[in-house]
Structure formats: structure tokens, C-alpha cells
Amino acid sequence: xxxxxxxxxxxxxxxxxxxxxxxxxxxxxxxxxxxxxxxxxxxxxxxxxxxxxxxxxxxxxxxxxxxxxxxxxxxxxxxxxxxxxxxxxxxxxxxxxxxxxxxxxxxxxxxxxxxxxxxxxxxxxxxxxxxxxxxxxxxxxxxxxxxxxxxxxxxxxxxxxxxxxxxxxxxxxxxxxxxxxxxxxxxxxxxxxxxxxxxxxxxxxxxxxxxxxxxxxxxxxxxxxxxxxxxxxxxxxxxxxxxxxxxxxxxxxxxxxxxxxxxxxxxxxxxxxxxxxxxxxxxxxxxxxxxxxxxxxxxxxxxxxxxxxxxxxxxxxxxxxxxxxxxxxxxxxxxxxxxxxxxxxxxxxxxxxxxxxxxxxxxxxxxxxxxxxxxxxxxxxxxxxxxx
Amino acid sequence: xxxxxxxxxxxxxxxxxxxxxxxxxxxxxxxxxxxxxxxxxxxxxxxxxxxxxxxxxxxxxxxxxxxxxxxxxxxxxxxxxxxxxxxxxxxxxxxxxxxxxxxxxxxxxxxxxxxxxxxxxxxxxxxxxxxxxxxxxxxxxxxxxxxxxxxxxxxxxxxxxxxxxxxxxxxxxxxxxxxxxxxxxxxxxxxxxxxxxxxxxxxxxxxxxxxxxxxxxxxxxxxxxxxxxxxxxxxxxxxxxxxxxxxxxxxxxxxxxxxxxxxxxxxxxxxxxxxxxxxxxxxxxxxxxxxxxxxxxxxxxxxxxxxxxxxxxxxxxxxxxxxxxxxxxxxxxxxxxxxxxxxxxxxxxxxxxxxxxxxxxxxxxxxxxxxxxxxxxxxxxxxxxxxxxxxxxxxxxxxxx
Lengths: 388, 401
Prior knowledge:
The complex is a heterodimer.
Chain A: H1 2-7, E1 19-23, H2 28-39, E2 43-50, H3 54-60, H4 75-88, E3 92-96, H5 98-114, H6 121-140, E4 145-147, E5 152-157, E6 162-167, H7 184-188, E7 190-191, H8 199-208, H9 230-241, H10 249-252, E8 254-257, E9 263-267, E10 290-295, E11 300-304, E12 310-321, E13 331-336, E14 344-351, E15 354-364, E16 371-376, E17 379-386
Parallel strand pairs in A: 1-2, 1-4, 2-3, 4-7, 8-11
Antiparallel strand pairs in A: 5-6, 8-9, 10-11, 12-15, 12-17, 13-14, 13-16, 14-15, 16-17
Helix pairs in contact in A: 2-4, 2-8, 5-6, 5-9
Chain B: E1 3-4, H1 15-21, H2 23-26, H3 37-57, E2 64-67, H4 70-87, E3 94-98, H5 103-114, E4 118-122, H6 132-137, E5 143-147, H7 161-171, E6 174-178, H8 190-193, E7 197-201, E8 212-216, H9 242-280, E9 284-286, E10 293-294, E11 297-298, E12 304-309, H10 314-323, E13 326-327, H11 343-347, H12 352-355, E14 358-362, H13 369-389
Parallel strand pairs in B: 1-13, 3-4, 3-5, 5-6, 6-7
Antiparallel strand pairs in B: 2-8, 7-8, 9-12, 10-11, 12-14
Helix pairs in contact in B: 1-9, 3-9, 4-5, 9-13, 10-13
């Protein structure tokens, strides 16, 4: 590989059709994506985004869990990305987007939880940081496109004259759910080299290319929340960086109630709960109880039995359309209401700025703050944020 | 071919300096403190290097404390002075410095403030100059030290250190200056200056990284900040970096020989660079002092210019230039990738957006007229592309990515 590489033009050629920036996290996926592009004679520049300074939370909450390795923005990950770039012989830079990330991802994340919604920070990061700021930087430094290690497929459909986003071939790794917000302009400047590969193939390739990160484990945490203790993060952030507007834990406390309004218990923060949650309620009534709604105004957590958790209708706002310019009333799709949900048949009815989603069968735990993403087969039609 | 315009970050070791250092790695490798012949030969080389350095800044060799660089010298000056004051009974020593100092000064002052000392940060005017009268106005009975940099690393502004030293002398207070960016570039004369303490660093004037010095005027006593084995003449413990000191000496000698001619040559190159940029690129301007000199006195170090290009992000510009074979920086190397815009540019009163749209170009030995041409052309290309993509560029439709 090295000999062939030396023969290749390793100098970045700004503006050339084959110039691409690879967004590198220091993980196996983005590293292998970069290796593939190198092998295909692309002129590559690697960029790693510095998004969040872990020390900020450490300073505010010294006993918070330590970040495990393999988290975006740890100096280890930057180091790993840099090593991969050196190994594959392309220029590499770290760009600092801490400001943008805090404004567009972290603060909305905290505000959502406090308002009783369950956010998807990865989607916000994709919409407003990765495929916005990073994409702009890529263009600014002369790359035609931005490539990432996302598992999703992208192609241009000449018949519809639109870029189509499809699920990845490896359905267990498919990340198309998190990419529903990308516009045609963004998609026209994006590449997903791993979309047609299975995870195991990617690891094989990483080994074949002798990437320093070939054996690096995956991380399942939200990149800026150590130990995935998001509720602790919200507490700390609110006190340290938002001027403690609730007046601390007291101000966040409230009641746990049944659907008829009977008070069943107390809680110390809406942000500790998500719709469909069963554990952590602190109530025993002889049958399983689930969170069915979170009310910011009254700070009440409503709990009920399994049947109360099911609904056939939801509304989505701030919808983005990919496969079509806009949906027609009565459009048939399969809708996913969370990443791990199995897409369920539904009908879409545009309703002013919202879309009403009518599922054929009642769905469990439709959660405000999550996204409903609409598929037709493996094509992403579009999606929106669940209201409530 | 990669061209370099970041000499304020560091310089290459001059070939002559390197030649001078080589024997001291493998042939004359003695510990300069050893009694035997190996040690004596090393010691002699160290003393020669020290003397060469002393000649550059017009002090006595014995007044130089050799350090690991400018940062250590700055720490020694401030912590040493404050420590000595505390040891002699001053409970809350006060230090006066400026808002545009290097982090080696600022962080040390912050540390002092955390431990019961007090610090006043005198502001600068929009050109980056300190007013000696403001320094005087900040004096208190508890003041023990005034530290004002000789020239700023980002904008090149040369401060009125003689006047400030006079203020210090009158008040019976010590005066320190961080001369890391001036030593070897413009004349530095500690006697004329009236400085009690002065920091310098080899790798800014074609010497090796990892060696610097603190000038300590005879009679000034500092509390040590490092402890260990000691040599009679040297208050700073640790085995002397013999090749490093030989290097700083050789670099000092070279600098003394070339100072005037290089200053003139670089000043002319820098002025042409500025002129061409401002003529050919709109909505760009110089941060800091525009003039180079006034009445034969330097207002700016001759090799430095700091320029803003409105509507773009300097971070992207620096990367774009690097990919085009042109190396420069957004400010101080040690602050690269920082979330806050430059504290220096902020202190000048620049709005945050403009501070984040500024780059520093600092010239040196290898820069030629051809380099300037290439840099200007590269800037034109890069700025045009960035502005076409920037949502902030006025009067154009927002082109999405």
C-alpha cells in the first residue's frame, strides 16, 4: 500500500472533483472511510472537530464519571485520528467548533430535557455542525465534498432530479435515522463511503489497511456526556452554565400522577424521565407502570399502564423532505419513531406546518423530542420532530 | 514547495549555530559542573556562550541565568520577585502588568493572585501601546514589580520600556520585560533600557528550542522557583544544557552581526507585503501599529504584521493557505485551536468577529521577494473563496454549502 501511495499525488488539489474532506472522529468507521477514499485516488484532507471541552463539566462536577476512551474530542481520539492521517499520508487539522456545538447541540439538549422532551443530539449535530459548519470549512479549504463514516447510502436519482438517502446495507448499523434533516444542497456535497459495507467488512478493511485504530472498540455514549449520565449532565450544566434558573433541585421537583390526576409519588426532575420508561419511578402499585407524559408547566410526570402508552397518531414539526419536494396528503410510508424502533406502516397528512402521522397500528411510547423518520422501503422520504 | 511566514512562532537553527553545537553532543559531552577535564571543557564552552549572549543585550555574563526558555524565564522573574518580597515580610505583594502579555506572564500573574497577591493589568490603546502614565497611576505601596513586554508577539508593537523602567525606578519597584520577541531582532540594551529583569528565548533568533535566559541585574535577588543541585555561579539548578547554551551563544553572535541589515531587509519586505495585501484585497486592515518606526525608534518589530480579512474565519484561512504551501498562524502558536479569540486583539478593542478573522504574518531569514509574491497571490485566492462561501459577506446571496 505504501509504495502505491507514494506514487499517488499526495498533495491536496483544491477545487478538483476528487478533493474531499473526511470528518474524522478517531474511530474505525471514519478512518476506514478515509482509507477507502485514499485508495480510490481521492485527494483527501482529514478534519477532526473539537466540539466540547470535557474539563468544563469536570470543573463544575469533580466527581462525575470519567469519560471512557473512544469519545469524540478526547485528546486520545484526536491523537488517533492524527495517527491514521499520518499512516494514510494526507494532511490533517483540528478545527474548533466548541462555540457552535454548545449553541446548537448542548444547550438545546439541556433545554429539551428540562422541558420534558427527549432530544437527539446526534441529529442536531449532523444538521447544524457536521453538515453545516464542517461542510462549509471543507468547501472553504477547497474540497468539493465532505465524507463521513456514517452507515447510510446516498445517490443521485436522475429521474426525480433529487439526491436520495437510503438505509445502509448493514441494517444493524444503519444511521439514516440521524440524517433525515439533510437538505438537497447538503446531500449534494456529501459522501458516505461505508453505506454498502457491513460492519465486519469495515473492520476487515481497517485491518487490511493496517489502520492504527483497527481494533479500537466502539463507544455507545453520547459524545459529550461522560458515562451516559445525561441527567447528571443536565443538573450540572443548568447550575454551572445557565445561572441555575430552576433554583436547583428543589425547583425541578414535582409530582408523579396517574392519568386521572391522583398523586402517586414525587420526582426531582422531569429530565430524569423519558416516555415509556419503567424504572426509577419509585412507585409500586402491583402492575408495571410506565411514563406516558411529561408536563413542563406543571412539572408532572404522568404514569400509566402499557395500554396508555400506545397511540396511533402523532404530529411532527420542522419536517425535512429528501425523496420528495413535499409530501402529498395520504402518502403511505413506514415510520420510525426512534432509532431502535422497527419502522411501522403509517399515512402522512400535511397539516399547515405540521404533519399528522397516522399509524396503522398503535405504537408504543411516541416520545416528544424524538424524530419520526419516514421510509419507503429503504429510501428516506423525510422526517420531522415529534410534537408534544 | 512550502513557504514559511511564522518566524514569531519559531525559527530554524542557523547552520552556523548547528555546527557550533554538534561537538557538544558526542565529543565534548562533559557535565559542565564536573571537576575533570571533560567538565572543564564543557564549562568553558558554556561560559563562552554566556558571554556571547551577554554581549548581545549589553549586560555582564554573570547577570545571565540560563533557563529552558522564555516561559521559564518569565516564571522565574515574576514568582522570584514576588517570592522574595513575601519572604521579606510583604504580605500582599502587588504586580503591575498589561493585558497583552504572553500567557507565560498572564498565567503566572493569575497564579500569584490566587495566593494572596494582587495584580493590575494595564490596558493598551487601540494600536497596542501601553501608556507609562497609566502604569504610574497603578502603583501602590505594595507594588513590588512592573512587567511590560518589550514587543508583542501577535502584533509586533514595541512598548515604551525605557519610560516605564524610569517609572519603576522612581518608585523603587523592579522592572521586568519579556523581550522574547525583540532579542535578536531589534537592538536590546538592558543598561539603556533600565531593566532589572529581562526574558529571552533562543529559538526566536535562530538558536535551538529549549534554551533561554533571564537577565538579572546585579544586586537583584529572586526567590528560586526550582530546587536541586547547584553550581556556584548559577542560581538555577539542573545540569546545564551545554549544546543549547553553545547554540544560544552562537545565535546571539550571529544576530549581533546581522541585526541592522536584517531589520532593514525584513522591514522593507513586511511593508511591501502589507501594501500589496491592502491594495489587492478589500475589507482588510492591519491590527496594531501601522508605522514601523518614529524618530529612529521602533514602534513595531520589523518582521511582523497582523491583518484582518473581514467576513471570514481565520482558522479556515490558515488551513487553506497551508494546503496551498503557505504557512502562517492566527496568533500565538500556544493558543492554536482555542475557543476564545486572541486576548491581544480583544485588548486592542477589536470586535470578536474581526479578531477571529485575523492572521499573523511574521517574516525571517529565508523570506524573499518571491515569497511575498506567492503569499499575496495565495491570500487573494483563499480570501476570495472563503468570502464566496461565507454567510457574512455583505451584498451577496447566501450560497449554501
